[in-house]
Design goal:
This protein has helices spanning about 5-15, 20-25, 30-40, 45-55, 80-90, 155-170; strands at about 25, 55-60, 75, 115-120, 120-125, 140, 175, 180-185. By secondary structure, the protein is an alpha+beta fold. It has one domain: SMI1/KNR4-like. The protein has a 4-stranded antiparallel sheet. Strands 1-2 form a two-stranded antiparallel ribbon. A two-stranded antiparallel ribbon has the order 7-8. Strand 4 (about 115-120) and strand 5 form a beta hairpin. The two termini are about 20 Å apart.
């Protein structure tokens, strides 16, 4: 499960690169606010995500802010932005319901999927039905061509956070202050590619 030490590691990696992200983040949500959002969601909010949004609730200026970028691709969302994006994705489902068999899937967004970070039409999302006993939640990716949504990208949000931190620490993801964006200056090891 995601711990404060994981978040401190990511924050330190951002700061070492001179990225604006740490100073652009909104304050975290209180336990009462997290509970209210969970009630609106209709699913329990797993420990991983309670820690994540309790740390920072997106960026001060919203997901479009340059400071919302956590790394090369992904931008942070507030929990409100995540719930709104989930609602938009659910409303665009072509067919009602969700198939019991993944082989019958036709591109529907499942009610138990919650986006956490985004990039254009892509997002990393949590499958809220498969939270583990310790509060970890598996992470999946919805790409521009969502053909692998059922594959687990990472077993927990802690793995994603530490993947970003490791990529930055090892120089695979670098922040360019002149260009005001993240770059990938060299070949990214296969295990870190999902986090770019």
């Amino acid at each position: 499960m995601l711990q404060q030490r994981d978040l401190d590691r990511l924050d330190g990696a951002w700061r070492a690169q001179g990225a604006p992200t740490p100073d652009s983040l909104a304050p975290g949500l209180s336990e009462a606010e997290l509970d209210a959002y969970a009630a609106e969601l209709g699913f329990g909010l797993p420990g991983d995500l309670r820690v994540w949004w309790g740390w920072h609730n997106g960026a001060v200026d919203g997901v479009s802010s340059p400071g919302a970028a956590v790394g090369v691709t992904w931008s942070l969302m507030s929990l409100r932005e995540a719930l709104d994006q989930r609602a938009r994705r659910l409303s665009s489902n072509d067919s009602p319901g969700f198939p019991d068999d993944a082989g019958d899937w036709e591109g529907q967004w499942a009610p138990w999927w919650l986006p956490v970070v985004t990039f254009d039409a892509a997002c990393l999302f949590a499958d809220l039905r498969t939270t583990t006993a310790d509060g970890s939640v598996p992470v999946h990716v919805w790409d521009a061509v969502p053909d692998r949504v059922f594959d687990v990208l990472a077993p927990s949000w802690a793995d994603v956070v530490n993947g970003w931190a490791e990529g930055i620490e090892q120089g695979h993801f670098r922040y360019s202050a002149a260009a005001r964006r993240w770059d990938v200056p060299d070949r990214v090891p296969p295990r870190l590619r999902p986090y770019t």
